[in-house]
Amino acid sequence: MELSQRITRMIGKGGDGWDLFFKARAMADVGQPVVELTIGEHDIRTDPRILAAMDRAARGGHTGYAMMSGTDDLRDAVAARVQARTGVPTARENVLITPGGQSGLFAAHHAVCDDGDRALFIDPYYATYPGTIRAIGAQAVPVQARAEDAFQPRADDLAAAAPGAKSLLVNTPNNPTGAVYSRATLDGITRVCQKHDLWLISDEVYDTQVWDGAHLSPRALPGMAERTLVVGSMSKSHAMTGSRIGWLVGPRRAIAHLASLAIHTTYGVPGFIQDAALFALNEGPALEQEIAAPFARRRAIAMDILGRQNAIRALPPQGAMYMMLDIRATGLSGLDFAERLLAQHMIAVMPGESFGQAPAGHIRVALTVADARFAEAFQTLVDMASELAT
Fold first, then answer.
1. Sorted alphabetically, which keywords does the UniProt record give (predicted)?
2. Do residues 184 and 107 share a domain?
3. Per-residue pLDDT tens over the stretch 211-224
């Protein structure tokens, strides 16, 4: 019996970049003292106040089927949050609650692409992007951003890839590079989408983690609200990664059809988790800032260490919980450097090659362990690079 080509070809010939992560996790599982700077998992757990709200909701009986589109109260809260941040009129009819941002990415592409359609995305990319696109039967087409442009995609490159495409996926603040797209970059994206009649899927799950500049949602730009689907999540902003709670925001007609997709796939998100998310959003920006603060501190620690060496080049990350480091002076690929760092020092980072062709010769470091431990591991990483580069 043959499995479908859609499922067997989802990952692609080059793999999905997770091998080193799984190797490091296996080492940690048997008690080896691995410093994991791989995935975007907070080193703090979900705030006890949020967990208490979740417990109250579950014990209060909100454990049955919830509305597949999301509870009205949570959709209203998300709409109000988005409108306040972007200035774009947003109502509950513009919001679909999803089981995390990843589910939102899948649903958004399902909404706008048919079998065989070309779906564009930016390289460097989060590791699941091409597989998500292939999973709905579309062609995953990367468009490279360049390190010399601080990984801001060029409008000309997007325009060259756009003819015949149906959608473009962007992510700002960006994982893995830490780039926050400038107004000029977003204006270029807008022109390409409007000229070539593309849907824009905007992954904005790091919108509360901005260290330099300001986050601008492309949905707020002229003429973009009716062709943009925004992916949001509580995972990064509220350290609720395991709760699997996020949303899509877009045109009412698209959201109505996506609600039908939810009926036939996820059947919604548990009500007690939605109630906890509502409580968390109602805590306001202070809680979001508290959760983001450790990453800002570790960014400063890393930049201080980098300022005292010459082997590694890095642009200061403008947002998100990662740094992309150029280690080409060592003579190693990102994968070889990461493998050696793990073998010799039990420090796990992600090879740049895990995120596409554009970041080859780079590594991605997640700012996700306690400050002192992070500083020690980062200094070790830099020392190894300096030794290799001499």
1. Aminotransferase, Transferase
2. yes
3. 999 999 999 999 99
